[in-house]
Design brief:
By secondary structure, this protein is an alpha+beta fold. The chain has 7 helices and 11 strands. It has a single domain, classed as Alpha-Beta Plaits. The longest helix is centred in the last third of the chain and has 12 residues. This is Reverse transcriptase domain-containing protein.
Length: 208
């Protein structure tokens, strides 16, 4: 099995990232934002940027999307329950755990959504190009995108995806990597574990 696993990982080596780059650009699931008000939009939708906590490893500029979220039409999608997910993991002989590289950031915004996600600095106005944390419907969009890519695997219960965590409860790793490659989703290699009988997943130690 070890050599098989090495062969599969080598065949799909371009789907893995060792750091923050290359960031994937997921195809076919562009992000839209629908508001419940008509134009002209109130100026409060533009928000000032401010630096993230100084304890962060990188200097980040973020924004408060509270006003935008107030006017955003809800687009709900159920998120998996962790307890049910752990029950599925207990039936697996081998478990593979992969981590999507900045999962939200791999989702591209359509032009209209970029316009709504403008942030103001003291020198200019910026637009987000990727789906940021903090906007309404972001978790729902991500989960719906996952459901669209892997409908059969998720319904059969041997593929589990919870936020950035991708867990495979069978030996069909090559099929999943092929589908991730098709939509251009990148995986963080140094946070992935392949073919374990027991490993830590979803903040719990699980085994088959």
């Amino acid at each position: 099995m070890r050599q098989e696993l090495i062969n599969v990982l080598y065949a799909y080596k371009n789907e893995f990232a060792s750091g923050n780059e290359p960031l994937g650009t997921i195809k076919g699931n562009e992000v839209d934002i629908t508001l419940n008000i008509d134009r002209p939009y109130p100026p409060v939708l533009r928000r000032p940027a401010y630096p993230a906590s100084p304890r962060a490893r990188e200097a980040l500029m973020v924004a408060d999307f509270g006003a935008l979220n107030t006017y955003t039409v809800p687009n709900r999608c159920p998120i998996p329950r962790i307890q049910e997910t752990l029950t599925q993991l207990s039936k697996a002989k081998y478990i593979t755990s992969m981590d999507a590289l900045k999962g939200f950031d791999q989702n591209v915004l359509i032009p209209k959504a970029k316009k709504l996600l403008e942030i103001i600095t003291n020198c200019c106005i910026y637009q987000y190009l990727r789906m940021p944390f903090g906007i309404k419907n972001a978790p729902s969009h991500y989960q719906r995108m996952i459901n669209t890519i892997f409908p059969t695997e998720l319904s059969e219960g041997w593929l589990i995806i919870y936020n950035d965590d991708i867990i495979i409860c069978s030996d069909s790793l090559s099929l999943q990597l092929e589908r991730l490659a098709r939509v251009n989703m990148k995986i963080l290699l140094n946070k992935s574990k392949f073919g374990f009988e027991e490993l830590k997943a979803l903040a719990n130690i699980v085994s088959g």
